[in-house]
Amino acid sequence: MTRTDDSRYLKGGPVAQRIIASVREDALIATAEGFPPKLVSITVGDTDAVDVYVRNQRAKAALAGIGFEERRFAADITAGELEAAIHGLNADPRVTGIIIQRPVPAHIPIKTLQAAVHPLKDVEGMHPASIGNIVYNQLDLAPCTAAASVELLKETGLELKGLEVVVVGHSEIVGKPIAFLLMSEGATVTVCHHMTRSLAAHARRADALFVAVGKPRLIKADMVKPGAAVIDIGINSEIGPDGESRIVGDVDTDSVKEVASWITPVPGGVGPLTVAILLRNTMVALNRQRALYRATYGVADQLAAE
Ligand SMILES: NC(=O)C1=CN([C@@H]2O[C@H](COP(=O)(O)OP(=O)(O)OC[C@H]3O[C@@H](n4cnc5c(N)ncnc54)[C@H](OP(=O)(O)O)[C@@H]3O)[C@@H](O)[C@H]2O)C=CC1
Ligand SMILES: Nc1nc(=O)c2c([nH]1)NC[C@@H]1CN(c3ccc(C(=O)N[C@@H](CCC(=O)O)C(=O)O)cc3)C=[N+]21
Fold first, then answer.
1. Does the annotation place 127 within a ligand binding site?
2. Domain-located, residue 302
3. Looking at the domain assignment, is residue 76 inside a domain?
4. Where do the Tetrahydrofolate dehydrogenase/cyclohydrolase NAD(P)-binding domain residues begin and end (predicted)?
5. Cα separation of 38 and 55, whole Å?
């Protein structure tokens, strides 16, 4: 049996295709109504870690009928200059959404940048005001990777209410939002991080195990409960036995797949779905902008008023 024919693999591609097809329908209607959705990506400095992501964003945005523009800034730009650029995008009615690719150089405070994006254009749900929404169980626009990971778990058909879930990694962009989304769904959530005393003991109790750390093969077969669902979020690049560069996750997939009932492959798991959800979030943002403008001015929306 080849890797991808194995039904234990929870693949992101088919789910992503469904989402992109539905986004495309909405995007074509919005465009015909005079409001073409457009996403702007901001990258700062050396962008190796995000190149794959941005390349896929561009390709999938084209498929979905969403405009895409990449703004690249030099590593020595100041935080003030970047904020000014973001304010310009906030004020530009042709721009629907803004995504700031991580990481940014150390001298740029990412939180300040994230807070500079207008909440209505925050397609990643990372503005402090947006991230608060998931605490209040308003889940229609959540951080893309977290939403993608939870959506893949739902593909298993497992009942989330009361499910024992363990999340490894507690970054603000992945681990923490996953924990909040799962709490909203009624799961019992344990969050582990580098200070956790026995990662293995916690991980082994999980019916669903989410891993977002950035360490290849951190999770081995003896850390996984038989029959569990394993969602591998890690994207690590390493040199394979053939001397070629390859992408691997945080889970030792070959051994863990013998124990788990479901496992997300890397590549081909969470990654493609993350991109699809970013595009879906862009349409959620567009619809919010149009609804607010109608409510405020009683006209179709901002462009129509000009
Ligand atoms: N598929 C996708 O769409 C995406 C994939 N990623 C990938 O997911 C991974 C995580 O990304 P991100 O959350 O941004 O990374 P961060 O580096 O921000 O966070 C890593 C987390 O892992 C924890 N950690 C570190 N070492 C251990 C350990 N030995 N045991 C348990 N926990 C540990 C850290 O805890 P502490 O803070 O306490 O040190 C931290 O919370 C990366 O491989 C990244 O490439 C990221 C974004 C999107
Ligand atoms: N603000 C911000 N948000 C992010 O969500 C974010 C980020 N910054 N910085 C970089 C990381 C990484 N990341 C990926 C998303 C999808 C793929 C993806 O599509 N992966 C394909 C790769 C296929 C191929 O190799 O072409 C797959 O896994 O199958 C990869 C990486 C999002 N990140």
1. no
2. no
3. yes
4. 143-289
5. 16
Asked if residue 101 has its Cβ within 6 Å of ligand 2, the reply is yes
Count Cβ neighbours within 10 Å for each residue of 33-44 and write b for 16 or more, e otherwise: eebbbbbbbbbb
Can you tell me the distance from the alpha carbon of 244 to that of 191, in angstroms, rounded to the nearest whole number?
34
Q: Is 271 in the pocket of ligand 2 (CB under 6 A)?
A: yes
Atom 32, ligand 1: which residue's CA is nearest? 193
Q: pTM of the predicted model, to two decimals?
A: 0.96
Centroid of ligand 2 to alpha carbon of 140 (angstroms)? 21
User: Is the CB of 301 within 6 Å of ligand 2?
Assistant: no
229-232 and 262-263 strand pairing = parallel
Q: What average pLDDT does range 46-62 have in this prediction?
A: 90
Please report whether residue 147 resides in a domain: no
Which residue range is the domain that position 211 belongs to? 157-260
90/169 same-domain check? no
pLDDT in tens, 95-121: 999 999 999 999 999 999 999 999 999
**Ligand 2 pocket test, candidate residues 9, 44, 53, 131, most atoms within 8 A of CB:** 53
pLDDT in tens, 240-291: 999 999 999 999 999 999 999 999 999 999 999 999 999 999 999 999 999 9
Q: How many domains does the chain have?
A: 2
Per the domain annotation, does 265 fall within a domain? no
- pLDDT at position 6 is 75
> Was 170 annotated as part of a binding site?
yes
ipTM above 0.95 for this complex: yes
Question: 234 or 1: which carries more pLDDT confidence?
Answer: 234
